[in-house]
Amino acid sequence: MSTNPALAGDPPPTSQGRRFAGQIRENLRAFFAWRPSRREAAEIILLASALPIYYLVRGITQTHVDESVERGIALINVEKSLGIFWEVELQSWVLSYEWLVKVLNNFYLFGHLPVIGGLAVWLYFWHRPQYLFMRNAFLISGAIALIFYVNFPTAPPRLLPEALNFGFVDTVGNQYQESRPLTPSWFVNEYAAFPSMHIGWNLLVGLAVWLATKNIFIRAFAFLMPMAMMADIVLTANHYIIDGIAALPVIFVAIAIAAGARWLVIRNFAPDGNVERDKGWIGWLYWIVGIPPGSEATNTLVPTPKAA
Questions:
Q1: CB neighbours of 294 closer than 8 A, spacing ≥ 6?
Q2: Helices (H) and strands (E) in the chain — how many of each?
Q3: What is the three-class DSSP state of 235?
Q4: Enclosing domain of residue 199
Q5: What confidence score (pLDDT) does residue 287 get?
Q6: 25 in a domain, yes or no?
Q7: Directed axis angle between helix 280-289 and helix 241-268, to 10°?
Q8: Does any domain span residue 49?
């Protein structure tokens, strides 16, 4: 007997393609028809205020340049002791290719928050549980990183004095004549290098995207995106290798705190049914800790991902 899937009753590829196109149209209609509820309006207010506050605190932090440079040199010494001080050699190879330098500069500037924002919208509308998981870990990790930026500002490789003869080149500054184009000066802290949330947040959103889908191409993107950013921050002399490594425990601690808060609320404030859960103060409590509304499962951190 034939084992051809098409003969076994499966729809032909053309039907699958039409069904996929129909799903896209339905999703787009739902997106444009969306009107925020009170809780969704609160979501917008939360994110619209948290991110500016994060960058404002970074930007107004008083920095002692000499101490920041000393910390940068200390990180280099740590890398030398570990045998991973490769930044200068790697960047010297990249500087031979002007087109590649421009690609790296643009990816550093536009492959971080714009990409995270776009993926957050996708997760919010079509993969809400993973979005809520990412949102809380995102906010918590930002708060942890601020502790380091405020108390232990560190000079990135590009800002180490030339007299030290390390050989780092500020590729973004050389291309745009400023380190952070299109960014208000009061949001910029040149010495917020350790840990690197370029890596931390790209890794976090990559993890959320991976958990949200089984699509091999989307998962490949989720896997490669933080790896590409890790290479980028080093090759543009914006961070040390150890800055990226230090972002990992920050993200893991943030995930643990977010998951722990979620578990405590489910354990101690379990209403009778989903309808009651979505009403009153307990509904807001569930929203704060990132428990998805409706009939989504609440006994696991992230429900089973959909196919796309």
A1: 274, 278
A2: 13, 0
A3: helix
A4: 37-61+77-289
A5: 87
A6: no
A7: 160
A8: yes
> Which amino acid makes up residue 236?
T
What are the C-alpha distances in Å from 12 to residues 6, 19, 21, 168, 252?
6, 11, 14, 56, 44
Q: Is 305 within the bounds of a domain?
A: no
Separation CA 2–CA 19 (nearest Å): 26
Number of domains in the chain: 1
Both tokens assigned to 141: 């990790």
| Pair 172, 105: CB distance under 8 Å | yes
**306 strand-pairing partners:** 213
Phi, psi of 184 (to 5 degrees): -55, 140
pLDDT digits 0-9 by tens, 214-263: 999 999 999 999 999 999 999 999 999 999 999 999 999 999 999 999 99
Question: The whole model's pTM is what?
Answer: 0.82
Paired tokens of 252: 């893991």
CA–CA separation, 240 vs 88, rounded Å? 10
Count the Cβ atoms, other than its own, within 10 Å of residue 181: 12
With b for 16 or more beta-carbon neighbours within 10 A and e for fewer, the 4-15 pattern comes to eeeeeeeeeeee
Residue 234 included in any domain: yes
- The pair of three-digit structure tokens given for residue 94, joined into one six-digit string: 């990249």
Ramachandran region, residue 280 (left: φ > 0; alpha: ψ -120 to 50; beta: rest): left
